[in-house]
Design goal:
Residues 6-325 form the FAD-binding domain. InterPro entries: FAD-bd, FAD/NAD-bd_sf, PheA/TfdB_FAD_monoxygenase. Pfam families: FAD_binding_3. By secondary structure, the chain is an alpha/beta fold. It folds into three domains: 5-73 and 91-150 and 259-335, FAD/NAD(P)-binding domain; 158-248, D-Amino Acid Oxidase, Chain A, domain 2 (2-Layer Sandwich); 390-500, no CATH class. 40% of the residues lie in helices and 23% in strands. Strands 6-5-12-13-14-11-15 form a seven-stranded mixed beta sheet. The two termini are 43 Å apart.
Length: 504
């Protein structure tokens, strides 16, 4: 189809990129971006672009990617826990300043012939356009005005975004235990000699520190105000990571992550893109990645579709599976991070394995291939000897001594109390009841459906039982999922596994 006029609501990365790709695909089409902010006004700090995203951008628009990569900073990844430190390679990821990202995308949009209008916020009904692309973010007014079947789920934990005026050598994950509870920093360098610091905590710690009070105090403040009291406290406890630098705020306030899902991504001539349609937790998902890949997918199907209805149906069919897969990975990662302080007794190398395998996206073999030194140390901590041969089989073959009992390997499971788990959230009230059943039992075998998602959830539930009750834990699962079960053993999620011949 050949659109005559396209309006894009939202001048963030997704909206700008969609506008440029649309103009390149349809040179005769009038494409206009409407952004409520000013061209040089943005909030946020750095944006991460993973290798897969870079490949997709290169295929769609190599000129834009070339400039983004030139402004970015590549880095590895370090975890620091209780004086222990482990480093793994991750230099395919680049950090780009959000201001630079937007400047590059604005320049390339205008170069293609896109009209940029700032300081306005029209509704979709006010626009004279064949196609309206709503890229107006997680709080999308367009989504709220339309019929998209939106559902928003709010997380339990709290987080805030801030920055520092120096460049970290690596991305850093660092928990700090305080008199109030545990705060965790996710930090990484980006261009301009600066670093992003995202800091999260649980609600009890947040309240103990008085940050519920500072949050309420900001309710009547201008939108540009930051929680300076929180920043000054966090600056002190993360002094080691900050290297005597200050934390910088930019509309920095405590938030709870909102996961957006929509039953439909289009309504009439309006289509949602990026955070307006879907979000994925920051610990694994990237709103920038998803939005820009949405833009690529939308323009691709428009070219081959006879009308908007067909194009929108194809857009969803193309993008929804990838988005929902990432949202599920992000959901698991979010739950893992919200319960992170319970794992701090693990050696840092095993904790890094737990982190990498937390969502089921990275296998033990794959991680060992990319970071053999770190994984090798973790395996020696787990098994007591140098790993050799088939890595997964080696993990399953290690003996175990627990509570005066010795087991020849990790698949010889004694008679234990069976706890059947068929649930989505291993930290839900329903899961609390299952943990209570395991207390004082002498040992628990966690059983349930054979699907991979259920086995991964059982491993998380078993970890809770193991850590909160001290009981011997075992997880039942199909032999076809032995890699996931082996990763669970090394990560301390379970003591033993019971392999079945069920089909996944």
């Amino acid at each position: 189809m050949q659109p005559r006029r396209v309006a894009v609501l939202g001048g963030g990365p997704g909206g700008l990129y969609a506008a440029r790709l649309l103009k390149l695909a349809y040179p005769a089409c009038e494409v206009q971006v409407h952004e409520q902010g000013e061209p040089d006004a943005t909030f946020g700090f750095g944006v991460g672009l993973a290798s897969g995203t870079q490949r997709n951008l290169e295929s769609a628009d190599p000129d834009t990617l070339r400039e983004l990569v030139a402004t970015g900073v590549r880095h590895d990844m370090t975890m620091q826990v209780r004086g222990q430190r482990v480093r793994v390679r991750n230099d395919r990821l680049i950090g780009v300043a959000r201001t630079e990202l937007l400047a590059v995308l604005q320049r390339h949009a205008e170069k293609a012939g896109v009209q940029l209008e700032f300081g306005v916020r029209p509704s979709s009904a006010e626009l004279d356009a064949d196609l309206v692309v709503a890229a107006d973010g997680v709080s999308s007014a367009t989504r709220e005005e339309g019929s998209f079947g939106a559902h928003v789920e709010t997380g339990e934990g709290l987080y805030l975004w801030c920055g520092a005026d120096f460049s970290l050598p690596d991305a850093v994950f660092a928990p700090v235990e305080t008199e109030y509870g545990t705060f965790v920093a996710h930090a990484y360098p980006y261009s301009g000699g600066r670093s992003t610091f995202l800091i999260e905590t649980d609600e009890r710690t947040w309240r103990n520190a008085g940050f519920d009070r500072t949050t309420v105090a900001l309710e009547g403040a201008p939108p540009s105000a930051s929680d300076e009291e929180s920043l000054r406290y966090l600056e002190k406890i993360f002094a080691g990571q900050l290297r005597r630098h200050r934390l910088i705020g930019n509309r920095t306030r405590w938030l709870r992550f909102r996961t957006v899902r929509c039953e439909r991504w289009s309504d009439g001539n309006v289509v949602l893109l990026g955070d307006a349609a879907h979000t994925a937790h920051f610990s694994i998902g990237s709103g920038t990645k998803l939005a820009m890949e949405d833009a690529i997918g939308l323009v691709a199907v428009l070219r081959d579709s006879p009308d908007l209805a067909t194009a929108f149906a194809r857009y969803e069919a193309l993008r929804r599976p990838a988005v929902e897969r990432l949202q599920e990975l992000a959901r698991r990662s979010q739950l893992w991070w919200e319960s992170f302080p319970s794992r701090l007794d693990l050696p840092v190398e095993r904790l890094m394995v737990a982190y990498m395998s937390r969502a089921g996206n990275v296998s033990l073999d794959r991680f060992a291939g990319s970071s053999p030194d770190a994984v090798g140390v973790a395996l020696r901590q787990y098994g007591g000897t140098q790993p050799h041969g088939d890595l997964v089989q080696w993990v399953l073959d290690r003996p175990l001594t627990h509570g005066g009992r010795t087991f020849p390997d990790r698949v010889t499971v004694p008679e234990l109390k069976r706890v059947h788990a068929d649930l989505r959230n291993p930290w839900s009230p329903e899961a609390d009841a299952l943990v209570a059943r395991g207390r004082g039992s002498g040992g628990v075998l966690v059983t349930g459906p054979a699907a991979r998602s259920d086995v991964l959830t059982r491993l998380d539930l078993a970890e809770r039982i193991r850590l909160e009750t001290g009981e011997l834990t075992a997880v039942e699962g199909p032999a076809a999922l032995r890699e996931d079960l082996a990763a669970g053993l090394v990560s301390g999620r379970t003591d033993l596994v019971s392999l079945t011949e069920e089909q996944v």
